[in-house]
Amino acid sequence: MSILRPISFERIIAVSSTPADAFRALTTGYSKWWTSGCGSIAEVGDRITFRFGEAFWVMQATILNSDFIELECVDAHHVDSGLPPTILKEWEGTKLQWSIHRHGEGTQIAFTHEGLNTSLLCYRTCEQGWDHFFVGSLKKYLNDGVGTPFIHAE
Q1: Predicted TM-score (pTM) of this structure
Q2: Quick check: 1 pLDDT over 60?
Q3: What is the rounded average pLDDT of the residues 129-139?
Q4: What's the burial of 153, exposed, middle or buried (CB within 10 Å: 0-12/13-18/19+)?
Q5: Cα 89 → chain centroid
Q6: What integer pLDDT is reported at residue 82 of this predicted model?
Q7: Which pLDDT score is estimated for 28?
Q8: Number of neighbours of residue 102 by Cβ within 10 angstroms
Q9: Inside any domain, residue 134
Q10: Which residues does 33 contact at the CB level (< 8 Å), separation at least 6?
Q11: Distance between CA 148 and CA 42 in Å, rounded?
Q12: How many domains does the chain have?
């Protein structure tokens, strides 16, 4: 007997830039398409914090290959005024995975947020966020050079 597990969040985009450009955007260019002021990663074990107001996620690089990147959430503080406080740590232990491949004249990026599924209270909010930041902003950044990241108030 097999146990059915909820399917993780997945999306695929095709962009006109090179796989090397995509790799840079997914290691050193987060502030250009996801959220400002977050820094970058250069090697396995590096940590990076993504902030959205008072919410934050600390990710640790677990795989950094030219065609595959994986970050594991090691600390989370997900605040959403419309949801109960039990969502604060829902991302902990989940993994962000990007697979990068040459596709025709451009690049295809497959994204999986392993562990983000419909059983989590934050799913709908996170789905909307990933559709904006990965499907929209990263694609725009890699195609046009300008993404639409979350900008922190100074």
Answers
A1: 0.94
A2: no
A3: 98
A4: exposed
A5: 16
A6: 85
A7: 97
A8: 12
A9: yes
A10: 25, 133, 137, 138, 140, 141, 147, 148, 149
A11: 23
A12: 1
| pLDDT surpassing 80 at residue 65 | yes
Q: Is 65 helix (H, G, I), strand (E, B) or coil?
A: strand
Q: Say how far apart CA 39 and CA 122 lie, in whole Å.
A: 25
Q: Which two tokens stand for residue 64?
A: 């950094």
In the structure encoding, which two tokens stand for residue 132, read together? 């904006």
* Residue 94 counted as domain residue: yes
According to the model, what pLDDT value does residue 11 have?
98
CATH of the domain at 53: 3.30.530.20
Structure tokens at 24: 């840079």
Residue position matching structure tokens 């050079």: 145
User: Is the separation of the CB atoms in 71 and 96 below 8 Å?
Assistant: yes
- Percent above pLDDT 90 for the chain: 91
Domain holding 41, by residue range, is: 18-144
Residue 4 lies in a domain: no
Q: Among residues 52, 71, 30, which one has the least CA distance to residue 153?
A: 52
Closest CA to 96 of 64, 121, 136: 64
Question: Per the domain annotation, does 12 fall within a domain?
Answer: no
